[in-house]
Amino acid sequence: MEMKKRISLELRNRTPVEVAELVVDNCRSSDGEIEGLTDEFKELEFLSMVNVGLTSLAKFPSLPKLRKLELSDNNITGSLETLAEKCVNLTYLNLSGNKIKELSTLEALQNLKNLKSLDLFNCEITTLEDYRESIFELLPQVTYLDGFDAEDNEAPDSEADDDDDDEDGEEGAGPLGQYDDDEEEDEEGSEGGEVGLSYLMKEDIQDEEDDDDYVEEEEEGGEVN
């Protein structure tokens, strides 16, 4: 599906200004450029364009509120100055799997003063000697590179934590909701158990009485004989 059509579908009868998150992964860009995404998306905070065949960011719109940008698995070689000019509030940028080869390509990101996390997995630049040290020196505002800080501490995944919280809540609600039913079943089972036990005890008592009567009859029979 072409990017322009995909973006139109993702709007779902909304106007661009009403959209805060937009995902157009795996669609086709026209001539390797962005099509259908305009300056009208001024409230956009999260944009994902994974594997869409991008080779250039020249037509990237002005998105002043954009904070998180996913551009992994494309064919971007440079033009990162466009992001520095039009997405000034970026805090997270994923360029994994692109054609980034040299440190000089990343110099434009120095103007992204709020950039805290940068991913360059599977880019040729990661094979450079002292790659991590060089990036942290070039971009001092960046705290996490490829998911780890300069001391190799893993970046916290706020989204994963939120998901875990949601799952915990759902799981907690499930057993809690089932708890009353189980409790009722246990109570019923307990009552049934008591009845069954009482019944068995009565049967045992009756059997003992029957045995006693039988013994007495034998003794009386013996006396008669």
TrEMBL record:
Spans through the membrane: none
Gene3D superfamilies reported for this sequence: Ribonuclease Inhibitor
GO cellular component: cytoplasm; nucleus
InterPro entries, alphabetized: AN32, Leu-rich_rpt, Leu-rich_rpt_typical-subtyp, LRR_dom_sf, U2A'_phosphoprotein32A_C
Residue ranges occupied by any U2A'/phosphoprotein 32 family A C-terminal domain in the UniProt entry: 128-146
Keyword set includes tRNA processing: no
Record region (Disordered): 149-225
GO molecular function terms attached to this record: histone binding; phosphatase inhibitor activity
Biased composition range(s): Acidic residues: 149-171, 179-191, 205-225
Keywords of the record: Chaperone, Chromatin regulator, Cytoplasm, Leucine-rich repeat, Nucleus, Phosphoprotein, Repeat
One Pfam family of this chain: LRR_9
BP-aspect Gene Ontology terms: chromatin organization; regulation of apoptotic process
UniProt-annotated location(s): Cytoplasm; Nucleus
Record family assignment: Belongs to the ANP32 family.
Function: Multifunctional protein that is involved in the regulation of many processes.
PANTHER family on file: ACIDIC LEUCINE-RICH NUCLEAR PHOSPHOPROTEIN 32, ACIDIC LEUCINE-RICH NUCLEAR PHOSPHOPROTEIN 32 FAMILY MEMBER E
Descriptive protein name: Acidic leucine-rich nuclear phosphoprotein 32 family member
Species name: Danionella cerebrum
